[in-house]
Design brief:
There is one protein chain. It contains 26 helices and 7 strands. Helix 11 runs parallel beside helix 13. By secondary structure, the chain is mainly alpha-helical. The strands form 2 sheets. It has a 4-stranded mixed sheet with strand order 3-2-1-7.
Length: 546
Amino acid sequence: MSALGVTSGVRSAVLRGEPQQAWAEFTRLTAPTDSDRLWAVRALMLLRREHEAHRPVQALATAGVSGAAAELARVLLFLGRPEEALARLDAGRSDLRSALDGALWWRTRARLLAYTSSYRQGLDHAERAWEHLQDAAQDELAFYRAPLLIQVAEFQMYTGDLPRALVTLGQARAQLDPQSVTRLYLHAIELEALLSLGRWNDALVSLRRLDALPQARAQYQLRYHWARYYLAAGQLSQALREFTLVASAAYERANQDLEFWARLGTATLLAWQQDEAGCQAELLRAAELLHALKSKEHQQGFALRRAACLLRLGHPVTPELLDDLTTARDVHQAMDLPLDAAAAQLQLCEAYRRRGDEAGLQSAVLTLKALCARLRGPYLLAREWPLLPELQACLAGQLEGGELGRPVLEVVTLGAERLLVDGQPVHVPMRRALELIAYLMQARSASLGRILADVFEEMPAAAARNQFHQVRHEIGRVVPQLHVLYDPRSREYRLETTFRLQWDVQRVRAGAEPLEGRLFLPSSGSWWAEQVNEELSRQAQAPEGR
């Protein structure tokens, strides 16, 4: 067993939140101690250079250096070797020589147990880590207390105690430096909790705060959180765009876990668009990633989303598909992941609905009600409903929270021009406001130059630009939950809202209602409005079934 020597500036740089400086300090040492080497490994882990940390931390763990086993286990988990990670971690427990090393040992074991067996056991271990940390040195406590609290909150959220998770996150936020990179972790967990509670406005506020962090702007992981928000908010085209970008970036950076979940998100939305070839390609890539991602959560997450894709694509409801969904539900329950278990049960309801099995549907709904009752939240399924509109209509009034808990903004542009919030008219005085909203619903996003050319085409450039910004701010003033936001990455404007959007043009395009000769934006006269009119007219005149 190796004893730790006197520590140089490597440790202090890590605890100041400067891992790059810590690594630079380490490289200048001519005779580093075991303590220097261990803190250098921790710096590499903070820098997400796990591959580089593998060999030195393996040597430290083999030598019995206190605290090294926990860092080695984290690297092995990153490399997709969870069983070996748990074995090496447990073998190193007798080598622990400080309160911090004990806290980090329990923290790592919490992550491993959550990954391999049970999030509730992971929560128990995360709470033990927090208890051990209280006896650590003051600078160690100051640096590690917020990340450990966030881990506790993460496991509270996944096990279904969402209100408690938000309280714990509030405690962690109070301990964090405003510029700490740990804020990315905090906002990610907070966003998931808020979406699961149906608190759409708060989720959007949290996401914007995350977007504003300087250290977040260059990170492709941030786009994944936007994708999750768009999916839950029912803005499916935007969600697909973000999931696709994340999957590509994660592939390039060999981030297999993030790529896996982004691929499943992309497949889900391609199935929604009835793009079977694209959906199957994404599922195939996700299946390939399962060779490295061997947790039950990944395996059953794949089974759940694959079955959901097949249902959306209209595949037959086979006994095998029902078995896959039942297994996904049961395994997620055994892992103490009730939100995922409820999502699997919701897809079982959809399977029985599609099969026309009323008895099976009602039995599945009863099970779903029981799951939701234990979670004590009426909107815990709200993030799933945008992809299941037929089931939502079928179960209207039967399931608490089935109405999504979000107000509806109806955009009427055929034969008339008006906005309605939950059926009540809303007047936006400026003439171009409704047209700009419709334009961005059509285009999804557009540059300022394109907007001015299409919507304000008859005005001089300077006047058009001024008018656009006046209309943009007027929309946000009159309808506070609807914003025309500028994205500095793409240099484009898009709609951002916590409403559920309903647009008569989309219903006509989907064949859900007839055109009946109505004109699109009859007062506009813009060339793009004429293009929409021509498109809808051609569709109305096309032979049925063509």
